[in-house]
Design brief:
Elements: H1 16-48, E1 61-65, H2 72-88, E2 92-96, H3 103-110, E3 118-123, H4 125-132, E4 145-154, E5 157-161, H5 169-177, E6 183-186, H6 192-204, E7 209-212, H7 216-224, E8 230-233, H8 235-243, E9 247-252, E10 279-286, H9 291-305, H10 308-316, E11 319-320, H11 326-347
Parallel strand pairs: 1-2, 1-3, 6-7, 6-8
Antiparallel strand pairs: 3-10, 4-10, 4-11, 5-8, 5-9
Helix pairs in contact: 2-9, 4-11
Length: 353
């Protein structure tokens, strides 16, 4: 671009009008020169930007839930997705990939492009408990994921099918003493439900037939239908079945009684110590996602979870909300993986052959 300048230096004999015009045109020349420099700088920066650079998020986000539709993980994921969409300005599409203790869905995310457009929302099984017992997975839970944000967390409850005739933990002990066959349904090998059933068997000295399913919701339906003696679940997914008289809560794997189930005692209250079983869910991305994208997702999840309505919803369902930074959530995963590894060894839980 050519910059034209004007030599209008005032000379003797020029009128005041000519002098003012000279000064104005000189200022105009300086402004035009500065504008040209700015345009040149913008052009230079644009050349230096990588191809396809965009403001995140610029398109829909895929959220993989490794459980079936209608499961507790699916329900809580959808409660978070809607307000997150408002914050991020893009739709979040939920995709269900159940099976293999949640590892099928986790694997799909681990292999996805690290651009923040494919995320995982899951409980502990595929990223903590199952790998902790040495379960065969085609990803490294520590290396292949970026922990993004902690979701709601809660303590599970032991329930019996209404048709079993059991109404208390004492009834369960009596059945065990009579050597009646007892089964315990889980959300899959190495899931939190598997650990809960194994802890129960050891604590009460009973034999339980472990029956794995593709998710905890399937195990609950089987218990409600009389195909299982026992299973576990979180208060939020139990309330409807309890109200319908299809399952009976026996004891909570918790430090204190849950808000929605105040009549259900904890194992500790019933004289069985060491039965607390803290469970959490959260958002994960493939390894290598840019930190700015992780921070944006963490902020959106935190904003969605900190509304008074959501906090009350979680607490009324027997859970709690705890906001963590991505770094703190990553450390929580590392610590929990080691904790479950030790517990798996104590309980003799090993990978499937």
């Amino acid at each position: 671009m050519t910059i034209h300048t004007f030599d209008l230096t005032p000379t003797e004999g020029r009128s005041p009008f000519h002098l003012r015009m000279s000064q104005a045109l000189r200022r105009l020349g300086r402004v035009r020169a500065a504008a040209c420099h700015v345009l040149a700088l913008i052009a230079l920066l644009a050349v230096g930007l990588p191809a396809g650079a965009e403001t995140y998020p610029a398109r829909p986000i895929r959220l993989v839930v490794p459980e079936s539709a209608g499961s507790i993980a699916d329900a809580w994921a959808r409660r978070l997705v809607r307000p997150m969409e408002q914050t991020l300005g893009q739709p979040i599409v939920v995709e269900h990939r159940p099976g293999a203790s949640g590892t099928l869905g986790a694997e799909a995310v681990a292999r996805a492009a690290p651009d923040g457009y494919t995320l995982l929302y899951t409980g502990q099984s595929p990223v903590v408990t199952y790998p902790a017992i040495g379960g065969a997975v085609r990803y490294d839970p520590q290396r292949d994921f970026t922990p993004v944000a902690l979701g709601p967390n809660a303590y599970p409850v032991l329930v019996a099918g209404a048709g079993s005739g059991m109404r208390s933990l004492a009834d369960l002990k009596a059945r065990a003493a009579a050597r009646e066959p007892l089964s315990c349904g889980t959300g899959g090998h190495g899931s939190y439900g598997h650990f809960a059933c194994a802890m129960l068997a050891r604590a009460l000295g009973v034999e339980l037939l472990m029956v794995p399913y593709k998710g905890s919701s399937a195990a609950l339906q089987e218990a409600a239908g009389g195909q299982l003696t026992l299973t576990t679940g979180f208060p939020s997914e139990l309330m409807g079945l309890i109200a319908a008289g299809r399952i009976v809560p026996l004891a909570a794997f918790a430090e204190r009684r849950a808000v929605p189930l105040p009549a259900v005692p904890t194992f500790r209250e019933l004289g069985v110590a060491g039965m607390e079983l803290f469970a959490f869910a959260g958002f994960y991305a493939p390894a290598g996602v840019p930190p700015a994208v992780v921070d944006a997702l963490n902020a959106a999840a935190a904003r969605a979870m900190q509304t008074p309505e959501y906090v009350k919803l979680v607490e009324d369902a027997g859970g709690r909300v705890q906001a963590l930074s991505p770094a703190a959530f990553a450390q929580m995963n590392t610590d929990d993986r080691e904790r479950w590894r030790r517990r798996g060894q104590e309980l003799g839980i090993r990978p499937q052959e």
